[in-house]
Amino acid sequence: MKSKSAAGENTVCYCTKCKMDLSHTIVAMIEDKIVRVKCRTCGSEHNYRDRTKKRATIKKGTSTAKRATPVKSPERRWEEAVFKAKGQDIPYEMSGSYNKGDIVLHVSFGRGVVLEVFEKKVTIIFEDKERVLAASY
Ligand SMILES: [Zn+2]
Known about the structure:
The protein is mostly beta strands. The chain has two domains: 10-56; 74-134, no CATH class. The chain has two helices and nine strands, in the order ββββααβββββ. A five-stranded mixed beta sheet has the order 5-6-7-8-9. Strand 6 and strand 7 form a beta hairpin. Residues 54-58 have low confidence and may be disordered. The structure holds zinc ion (ZN). The site of zinc ion has 8 residues, from loops.
């Protein structure tokens, strides 16, 4: 093993054209450092890349941040609401009147529970999300 490389000798380094580690001929050196090499595979000349130095600068990503939002998903809230609700399922009608906690059966949205009752409106939680629907109070 030689302790020093010299121009004209071969070294294995990363080729920017071939995009892999390949055998290169040393073209230029500054003191004992290789500065320019020629790829023996594609013939292109490029600066010598010291990969060991580059690798040390790569920082570890801190993408392990957890989603700490304690907001309940609509499905979970819906499950709870249905669980708490009592009484029979009432088919939803725009002209119907509802009370808080009523289970409403909607033709398109399925089973829901009345959360709030307003004038001519009701907030009903369905399995996917809450909806404000018309009602006659
Ligand atoms: Zn190459």
